[in-house]
Design goal:
2 strands; 56% helix; two-stranded antiparallel ribbon; 9 helices; zinc-finger; 2% strand; zinc; mainly alpha
């Protein structure tokens, strides 16, 4: 009977002795239980599709780094990430050619002919100002030029070429008639009332002034005599001569 009581007493006191004899084992068991408790929420969050903080790898992320888009959960984790963040790559500069090719204009460039006695009109600022002052001046000059050209027959009155063989021409127009018609058109335009007549009068006076100025510098009179055989030059000479009378 005494032996049975002693065995029971030893059985009750042995667990207490084991706990008191191994305190480190008890501490490790407590740490393992705590880590398991912390790991369980992260595993549950990952299973639910929640993005975990890329710094502490424990809490759910709330923000993203604007440079590398790494998720983080708090200001503290963001500070740690900034300290360890890799530098941004330097932008690559595109090397420019040392001798860039000049731009080629699709529109033809009209060069001033030094032998042209009327080249002063091409770059005259006074003439350009006159066209801006009188917007209808361009059309008036086109009408005067049209008066020097042969009249056009209506399409329904034209005779086929095959039927004109052997038939003498009955046209009353020639070059002299065209010059005469141009003079009359110019005279009528100068005598017109209002801005129409005023614009033509200022235009003819300016043309005469510019040509006379070029005559004094470049001896345009000699060049005009040499080019008298050309039809266009002859037309302009005659029109200008009519205005000087």
């Amino acid at each position: 009977m005494e032996q049975v009581q002693s065995v029971a007493t030893e059985a009750r006191t042995k667990p207490t002795e084991d706990r008191t004899q191994d305190p480190h084992a008890a501490s490790e068991a407590s740490t393992n239980e705590s880590s398991q408790l912390h790991a369980q929420p992260s595993a549950q969050q990952a299973a639910k599709g929640v993005t975990i903080c890329g710094v502490c790898e424990k809490a759910a992320s709330k923000y993203k780094c604007p440079r590398c888009y790494l998720p983080y959960c708090s200001v503290a984790c963001n500070k740690i990430h900034k300290e360890n963040h890799p530098p941004d790559p330097e932008p690559q500069l595109i090397a420019k050619p040392e001798n860039p090719e000049p731009l080629i204009s699709s529109s033809p460039v009209t060069l001033s002919d030094p032998a042209n006695p009327f080249r002063a009109l091409d770059t005259s600022e006074h003439l350009q100002r006159l066209f801006r002052k009188y917007p209808g001046l361009t059309q008036q000059l086109l009408d005067i030029h049209a008066a020097t050209q042969p009249p056009q027959e209506a399409p329904d009155k034209r005779i086929p070429v095959s039927l004109m063989q052997g038939v003498p021409k009955k046209s009353n127009w020639n070059h002299d008639v065209g010059i005469k018609n141009g003079k009359e058109a110019l005279r009528r335009a100068r005598m017109a009332d209002g801005e129409a007549g005023e614009g033509i009068r200022e235009y003819t006076e300016l043309i005469l002034h510019l040509i006379n100025a070029r005559d004094d510098k470049d001896e345009v009179t000699t060049m005009l005599q040499q080019q008298a055989s050309q039809e266009d030059t002859k037309l302009i000479e005659q029109l200008m001569a009519q205005e000087r009378r």
